[in-house]
Specification:
Elements lengths: L19 E2 L23 E8 L4 H4 L1 H10 L3 E5 L5 E9 L3 H8 L4 E6 L18 H4 L20 E6 L16 E2 L4 H4 L40 H10 L16 E6 L8 H11 L16 E4 L3 E2 L4 H12 L3 E5 L10 E2 L7 E6 L17 E4 L20 E6 L8 E7 L1 H18 L5 H10 L19 H10 L7 E3 L3 E3 L4 E8 L3 E2 L3 E10 L5 E6 L5 E5 L10 E8 L3 E2 L2 E9 L6 E10 L1
Parallel strand pairs: 6-8, 6-9, 7-8, 9-11, 11-13, 13-14
Antiparallel strand pairs: 1-16, 2-4, 2-5, 3-4, 10-12, 15-16, 17-27, 18-27, 19-26, 20-25, 21-24, 21-27, 22-23, 22-26
Helix pairs in contact: 6-9, 7-8, 9-11
């Protein structure tokens, strides 16, 4: 492109999440705002309530009311005790403006308003729910309560690949059998290798117990107590709700499958990759089959590296088995491009936002970020080092008081991208529970396309915005994506001024609908540079997107409808992407094809 261009963002990835422990304080929940105009709503309805003026024929005669409603193209459902009539619209909508205006213009009509379906507004009775700003606050909460009227995660298992699970009464009813994948008995602290006991034995370490860093400094630099990290993550996803104690989980009817991979000094790639495979229903040598495979995996872990073949193969296998993989972006305030496994293709990479809606000061960033979610942001005092001055701004969840080995159960707030990722994993569980046929690519697209802008700032890139649970769950009904039975989730780099293709092989032959759906997820730092085509097996090219020098936004996340030929031959379909201006690069993250 001619002229000045903004600086390109590097492709992004993910890091480990070592978290700061903070202390609780109460925070009041946000209040629901009143609706100023009863005919302007954002919830679906299928009937109107029409009140006629006293003395009119319609106010007293059912026949007259029925005739009047028919003249407006609708039918009467029934008359109310007040004398008003309930009018059927014929279908569910959130905007019946033309019909409403027709009634408003009728001189015999006193009022007209939607016949809305009401839901209970009572907050969960969990005693610490008021501290969970991350779920309900209007500024930068994830808008979770509004999603619960249509889905609570029932029937979905979420695998938490982490430190294992320490017993907690707010989680016990949600946990299904997991597995201990730590193959090194010394690091595991349980005296053996892999087994069915996924209990968290504690990950405490003494100063220097894990060796030295590149500069020769001891790792860790000081003694560290056990984090009980996996239990904190699990609580955010699925803690029991409305049980008059503790916190509310996002997908509180989902099941948690704890998989232990992190122990003393961390976890091995080989163990983590096997856990990904097993969690999603794949076969791992020497490990009995998983009886309750997970539809969602949460990994609040990682390290600084490129995505290895070992990780990518395990993730590809999980996605191909229909499991959505969510990964934390890391806490190094660096570009995520060099952190894994979140720089692997196909995963949902999650950055952390603060209570004010900014990128959290520690969160990694970059074009590889898919979405932001609440991760909390606390500060330490300067006069008294180690003292947390804003504990109320952390993420409250289930924990344990033991310094090394397990002690009494408790609740504490943490901060980190480790806390942001389970918010998105919980949302993914809500989506899959509502529509079990959703593929991982569709889950990812729904979360990204139904996010809302971060209310604060993000330097370096925070993906599509702040995840919004209610908006995303509602979109499953109103704008379902294509089934995506044919899918490609392998990254294809788009060089500056380059042309690339990504292929999908299809065995579909014979007659097909004239409508073909193409779901596209492309990461790019200037999407106006791009021309996108679908190439049929016979070589016919269908234009999906033209270039536009004025469209400077990031990324292309969209579903296109193509009027392809009704005669479909088996063969290879290709997504062709051309970068027609200079200055920016990107990659095809995923795409899917539906022939109907």
């Amino acid at each position: 492109m001619n002229g000045l261009r903004r600086t390109s963002l590097c492709a992004a990835a993910v890091s480990a999440a070592v978290l700061s422990v903070v202390s609780p304080v109460n925070a009041a929940p946000a209040q629901i705002q009143s609706q100023p105009d009863s005919t302007q709503v954002n919830r679906p309805f299928e009937r109107l309530i029409v009140g006629y003026k006293p003395g009119t024929a319609e106010a007293s005669s059912d026949t007259a009311a029925s005739d009047d409603v028919k003249n407006k193209g609708k039918s009467v459902h029934r008359r109310m005790s007040s004398g008003a009539v309930v009018v059927d619209l014929g279908s569910k909508t959130s905007n019946a403006d033309s019909t409403i205006q027709a009634f408003k213009a009728d001189p015999d009509v006193a009022y007209v308003e939607p016949d809305l379906l009401m839901q209970p507004f009572a907050d969960p009775n969990d005693t610490d729910y008021s501290r969970q700003w991350d779920l309900f606050e209007a500024t930068a909460g994830m808008n979770v309560p509004g999603a619960w009227s249509s889905t609570t995660g029932a029937g979905v298992t979420v695998a938490v690949i982490d430190t294992g699970y320490v017993a907690h009464s707010d989680l016990s009813a949600r946990v299904v059998a997991g597995y201990d994948f730590v193959s090194d008995a010394t690091r595991a602290r349980d005296g053996n290798g892999r087994d069915f006991n996924s209990a968290d034995e504690g990950d405490w370490v003494a100063r220097g117990e894990c060796g030295t860093d590149a500069s020769g400094n001891p790792v860790p630099a000081a003694d560290q107590g056990s984090s009980w990290h996996g239990t904190h993550v699990a609580g955010t996803i699925a803690a029991s709700t409305n049980n008059a104690k503790g916190i509310a989980g996002i997908a509180y009817d989902a099941k948690i499958q704890p998989l232990r991979v992190l122990a003393k000094c961390g976890g091995a790639t080989s163990d983590i990759a096997d856990a990904i495979t097993w969690a999603s229903g794949g076969t791992v040598s020497g490990v009995p089959a998983n009886q309750t495979p997970a539809k969602v995996i949460n990994m609040s872990l990682g390290g600084q590296s490129s995505c290895s073949t070992t990780y990518q193969n395990a993730i590809n296998g999980a996605i191909n088995r229909g499991t959505t993989v969510v990964v934390a972006a890391g806490n190094s305030n660096m570009n995520v491009a060099n952190f894994t496994p979140a720089n692997c293709s196909g995963v949902i990479t999650v950055a952390a936002s603060s209570r004010e809606g900014n990128k959290a000061f520690y969160s990694n960033f970059g074009t590889r970020i898919d979405i932001a979610a609440p991760g909390g942001e606390t500060r330490r005092g300067t006069d008294t080092p180690g003292t947390i001055t804003t504990p109320e701004n952390g993420i409250w969840s289930t924990l344990n008081a033991g310094t090394t080995t397990p002690g009494a159960e408790n609740y504490k707030p943490y901060q980190g991208t480790s806390m942001a990722a389970p918010h998105v994993a919980g949302l993914a569980a809500l989506l899959v529970a509502k529509k079990s046929s959703l593929t991982p690519a569709q889950v990812k697209d729904l979360i990204k396309t139904n996010s809302r802008p971060l209310p604060g700032t993000c330097s370096g890139g925070c993906g599509a915005g702040l995840a919004d649970a209610t908006k995303t769950v509602n979109a499953v009904d109103t704008t379902p994506p294509p089934s995506g039975g044919l899918e490609n989730t392998t990254d294809v780099a788009i060089a500056d001024m380059g042309t690339v293709t990504s292929s999908i092989s299809s065995s579909v032959t014979g007659n097909a609908s004239s409508t073909t759906k193409v779901g596209v997820d492309i990461v790019h730092t200037y999407r106006g540079d791009l021309v996108i085509d679908l190439i049929a097996p016979d070589g016919t090219a269908y234009r999906l997107k033209n270039s536009s020098s004025s469209d400077s936004a990031d990324n292309v996340v969209a579903t296109y409808t193509v009027n392809a030929s009704s005669e479909v031959a088996a063969g290879t379909w290709k997504l062709r992407v051309q970068d027609v201006y200079s200055g920016d690069t990107g990659y095809i993250n995923a795409w899917n094809l539906t022939l109907r």
